[in-house]
Amino acid sequence: xxxDPERRAWLRDELRAEGLDAIVxxxxxxxxxxxxxxxxxxxxxxxxxxxxxxxLVAPSDEKELAEAGGADEVITFEPASLQKLTTSMESVRxxxxxxxxxxxxxxxxxxxxxxxxxxxxxxxxxxxxxxSIPDLFSGASMMGASGLFRRLKARLTRxxxxxxxxxxxxxxxxxxxxxxxxxxGLRETEAAARFRTLLVTVGIGFEGASRADGHVFCMAGQHxxxxxxxxxxxxxxxxxxxxxxxxxxxxxxxxxxxDITRTYCMGSPTDLQQRMYEAVFEARYAALAAxxxxxxxxxxxxxxxxxxxxxEFESIFKHPTGHGVGFAAIDHNAIPRLHPLSxxxxxxxxxxxxxxxxxxxxxxxxRHCDMVAVTESGAEVLTPFQCEIEDLIRx
Length: 395
Prior knowledge:
CATH architecture of the largest domain: Alpha-Beta Complex
CATH superfamily of the largest domain: Creatinase/methionine aminopeptidase superfamily
Number of helices: 10
CATH topology of the largest domain: Creatine Amidinohydrolase
Shape: globular
Strand content: 15-25%
Number of domains: 2
Oligomer: single chain
Structural class: alpha/beta
């Protein structure tokens, strides 16, 4: 990813407003924010100074990937050695100390990631520096900057938004092919795999993507009524005729994430299933129509909830209408929070999901989750596929 002048300008302004000389990121999503590079194992650090100098300190085996990002400089270190047993903290200390001296910020006011956070997995195992970061900056005044990172990630630049669009285009292929391969008799796990495989086989190399992957879960029949929980899971149960099949996808391309759900019906919908579909789609249309800059996020939630109420389904719409997406897939505290009590206001460049849903215990659930960007004229739907009830019926 090339240097992003828009992101650099926003970062400069935020650092000045906070009275910071620099900011350091170690969580992969925050490193991506500063540099356009999504670290693999979590030992990479990014340092951005108020004069817009951005440096990556990365393990040597990530050098090729790191240099494809937008940092001004990439410094590498050896994370392991056959000559001695060492830790990442020990390995990165000297290169970082040299960098701080060269940038003249070893005694500066530096913001860092303190406090609670939710982080998308960048690899099967992730290194987290956590509270050890201040020890690497022992001469500096370290200031908690978690709120600053949240604000910075709430609005995407034009370059970042195009990266999210690319991730959505990859997911579109996966959903189109996955739907066509759904069949009665498949296990939920088998159905999920038919969607997920495409995220990798199509995704890597798609419009230049170096890394692409994700998770897909299918919950069918009465299991789909449980999909409002904190996580989804596919079971070994078989899909039956007449079932709802809820396919939930969180995918990324080079660290920019999606959050997408479609619910299929294996045969002609019953009257109740048709009513559920109609309520969810009416809520979707109402929420999209309410999206525009400066609107409170709670008003988007209210529009969707009012539509559900008109169908007498409000009580089984069991979660908020959406949350920020882009630098993570599932973070219910990501701005903007489309929650009944949210005071967040929409701004052009914000990206979030809109996911109206209904869940009838023991019967089934319907959720339709789109990715949406705020523009000056309203909502841009980044996932404009399978958006009619007819598209979701599998004979």
